[in-house]
Amino acid sequence: MSTVDYEIKNTSELRHAEEAMRMGELENMRPLPRISVHAFCESEGLQRVMERCANDRRMSKVSLRITSGGTAAAANMFSSTPTPNLIIIETRANSASLLAELAPLAAVCDPSTKVIIVGYYNDIGLYRDLIRNGISEYMVQPVAMPDIMGAMATIFVDPEAEPLGRSIAFIGAKGGVGASTIAHNCAFGISNLFSTETILADLDLPYGTANIDFDQDPAQGIAEAVFAPERLDEVFLDRLLTKCSEHLSLLAAPSLLDRAYDFEGQAFQPVMDVLQRSAPVTVLDVPHAWSDWTRTVLSSADEVVICAVPDLANLRNTKNMLDALRKIRPNDKVPHLILNQVGMPKRPEISVSDFCEPLEVEPIAIIPFDIALFGNAANSGRMISEVDPKSPTAETFSQISHIVTGRVAIKKSRKGGLLGLLKRK
Question: Does domain 166-404 have CATH number 3.40.50.720?
């Protein structure tokens, strides 16, 4: 490899590393509000960046339009149509001509419209002139998706706003794999281990089991929130919650078949918005289904955990779910995987390594089959850490709680590439 090739390779790797670091900053970024954005791109590079922004879950409320062209195209378009909340313009104009180039656009812009300029000249004097003349931000190419979204957040997200809580969605690759049991134990673990106010929301309205697992019989719960979104706020939510422990509250499912539970795609979004404003951590127990509303919930959550048992149907479903979630969450981490009921007597199983190889994902936990431990916990309305706090399974749930809340880095063991920090039988 020549010196030039080596330098180009290193520069490319450095840019990828820098973007990866900036992508990490997006994890804590609040979703953008309901605004309209129109981007005018002169290069294919910026157009690809804007298309990536359009597919990000934090932009779900944003109406984004992308047009080829620069300042002249923007001025021409808005001479006859109202301007959006934000205009993003790419221009190759230099310091001497940029302000003059922007004059026709300024003549047709609404006073409330914000403008971000993406240019090619790293000139502090130009930057000051643009800011002085009402431009919201000037960015120098090459820009990455985190740069653009960070700039939009700076303009439209209130820095004084209360921080949003973290949402963690658990879903099973197949019915009966124990995803709800895992979600409930993790919610209990998070609330106890970190003394953090946690809300467990059971989204399986007809068949939810969170009320049974915590030995509760609430009169109200998530149904009242979903079917009356116009009443939903923090005060109303507080009336619907049931206290399970010092730091854990339950938004229970009715578990009744007195009506059909058919929901539109955005039906649970108001509930999730209020939950994130109400507690530092929300655990979402998502039923095994694939519909508009479950896709929306999974695409909106900060973390997704897929629970599976090691058989062929689970392998197929897990692969399909991972592929689908990678598409609808292109700028987020790959969902976590938990293998449950491993080592069930007399049941043929796929080995852990063979199960994970085609998925290209390693499990964050392997939970052994233990019918006595889980059966006793379920029948007594208690969690695993209450029934047998010193068991390896209780320790595994503790480690899962650390991982999904970001309180511990995932480590690979030297043997087999699986997590060495999780104890298992």
Answer: no
Residue 353 CA to residue 417 CA, distance in Å, equals 9
| 328 in Cβ contact with 192 (< 8 Å) | no
Contact 327, 295 (CB under 8 A): no
| In 15-92, beta strands by DSSP E | 36-41, 63-68, 86-90
CATH 3.40.50.300 boundaries in the chain:
166-404
Q: What percent of the chain shows pLDDT beyond 70?
A: 88
Q: How far apart (Å, rounded) are the C-alpha atoms in residues 338 and 336?
A: 7
Q: Which element (helix H / strand E) includes 115?
A: strand 114-119
> Where do the CATH 3.40.50.2300 domains begin and end in the chain?
31-156
Type and span of the H or E element at 235: helix 234-240
pTM here is 0.78
Residue 160 pLDDT more than 80?
no
Rg, the chain, Cα only: 25
Measured between alpha carbons, how far is 193 from 82 in angstroms, rounded to an integer?
53
Taking residues 309-327, what's their average pLDDT? 96
Outline where 33-173 has alpha helix (H).
44-54, 71-78, 98-108, 124-132, 145-156
What Å distances lie between residue 153 and 34, 39, 118, 303, CA to CA?
Answer: 12, 16, 16, 21
Domain 31-156 classified CATH 1.10.3130.10?
no
Reported as a single tens digit per residue, the pLDDT across 236-289 is 999 999 999 989 999 999 999 999 999 999 999 999 989 988 889 999 999 999
